[in-house]
Write a structure and sequence with these properties.
Oligomer: single chain
Pfam families: Cas_Cas7 (PF05107)
Largest sheet: 8 strands, antiparallel
Helix content: 25-40%
Number of helices: 9
Structural class: alpha+beta
Protein name: Type I-C CRISPR-associated protein Cas7/Csd2
Distance between the termini: 22 Å
Radius of gyration: 23 Å
Shape: flat
Organism: Gimesia chilikensis
Number of strands: 14
C-alpha cells in the first residue's frame, strides 16, 4: 500500500438500539455529559468481520479470527502445523525466524488480523500484530433520547411458570430504542503498518473494507437494531505513505448541519434533516477526497 487514508463514516439508526451497553441493562450507550449517543469501534469491527466472513465464505486469505465459538489457540496451532513447528517446544518457535513466519502465516490467512491486528499470545504463542485499520467511537451529531418500551410474550419458559399464571401465559419484558440518531465515526489506515501485516498485498483488502462499510448493515438486521443505514463514507487519500496533512484538519472539512430548507425545527428524525458538506477547495498538496457512499 502506497497511500495513507483517513475517512469519515456516517451511519444512522431509526427506532433501534445501535449498540447496547451490557453494564447498563443494554441501554443505548451515551455520553453522560452531553447526551450524545456512542457506538464502539468494536461494534463496527464485528459487523465488518461478519460481512467479510459471509461474502468470502471463511476461506483463506479471508478467514475470520475473532468469531463466535472460535477457539483461538486452535487457530494458532494451525500455523505451527503448516510450518512444521512443535507448539509445545518453545525452543522450536524461537529457532531461526520461526516466530516471524508463524505471525505472518496468521496475517496471510485471516483478514481481521492483517486489518485490525490481534494479540495472539494466549497459551500457544503466535505473536502480536498492530493493525493498520483503526476506528474511533461513533458519536451522534445531536443528543439522543433512549425510549423504553414494555413488550409481552404470550408464552412462558417452564411448566411451573404456567401454573403460577393460571392460564394467562403472558410474560413482560423491556426494549430500548433510539427514535433517530446520526452517528459520525472517524477511521484511519496506516500504510506502514499495512506493509507489516500484508494488508492490501492481494489488491483486494481495501476494496473489501469499503464494500463492508457500504453494505454490512443489510446483513446485520435484528429486531433490536431497528433500521441502521450507511449514509456517507468520505475518504481522504494521501499521496505519501506517511501522509500529507494532519488527519484532524482533514476531518474538520466535513461539516454536518441541521437542514433548515425543509422547515425542520423539532428533533431530527431522518438523514434529510441534515446537510453534509465537504470543503474540498484548496486541499493540501498531495490530498484527494472521494465520497464513496
Amino acid at each position: 500500500m502506497n497511500h495513507r487514508y483517513d475517512f469519515v463514516y456516517l451511519f444512522d439508526v431509526t427506532d433501534g438500539n445501535p449498540n447496547g451497553d451490557p453494564d447498563a441493562g443494554n441501554l443505548p450507550r451515551l455520553d453522560a455529559e452531553t447526551g450524545q449517543g456512542l457506538v464502539t469501534d468494536v461494534c463496527i469491527k464485528r459487523k465488518i468481520r461478519n460481512y467479510i466472513g459471509l461474502t468470502k465464505e471463511e476461506q483463506p486469505p479471508y478467514e475470520i479470527y475473532i468469531k463466535e465459538k472460535a477457539v483461538l489457540n486452535q487457530q494458532h496451532e494451525r500455523a505451527y502445523q503448516a510450518l512444521d513447528v512443535d507448539p509445545k517446544a518453545k525452543g522450536d518457535r524461537n529457532k531461526g525466524d520461526n516466530a516471524t513466519k508463524i505471525t505472518q502465516w496468521m496475517c496471510q490467512n485471516f483478514f481481521d488480523i492483517r486489518a485490525f491486528g490481534a494479540v495472539m499470545t494466549t497459551g500457544v504463542n503466535a505473536g502480536q500484530v498492530r493493525g493498520p485499520v483503526q476506528f474511533t467511537f461513533g458519536r451522534s451529531i445531536d443528543p439522543i433520547i433512549s425510549a423504553e418500551h414494555s413488550i409481552t410474550r404470550c408464552a412462558v419458559t417452564t411448566e411451573k411458570e404456567a401454573e403460577k399464571q393460571e392460564g394467562d401465559n403472558r410474560t413482560m419484558g423491556r426494549k430500548f430504542t433510539v427514535p433517530y440518531g446520526l452517528y459520525r465515526m472517524h477511521g484511519f489506515i496506516n500504510a506502514n503498518l499495512a506493509a507489516q501485516t500484508g494488508f492490501e498485498s492481494n489488491g483486494e483488502d481495501l476494496e473489501l473494507l469499503w464494500s463492508a462499510l457500504a453494505n454490512m448493515f443489510d446483513h446485520d438486521r435484528a429486531a433490536a437494531r431497528g433500521q441502521m443505514s450507511p449514509q456517507e463514507l468520505i475518504v481522504f487519500q494521501h499521496e505519501s505513505p506517511l501522509g500529507n496533512a494532519p488527519a484532524h484538519k482533514l476531518f474538520s472539512r466535513v461539516k454536518i448541519e441541521r437542514c433548515e430548507s425543509n422547515g425542520a425545527s423539532g428533533p431530527p428524525r431522518s438523514f434529510s434533516d441534515y446537510k453534509v458538506t465537504v470543503v474540498d477547495d484548496d486541499l493540501p498538496q498531495g490530498i484527494s477526497v472521494e465520497r464513496k457512499i
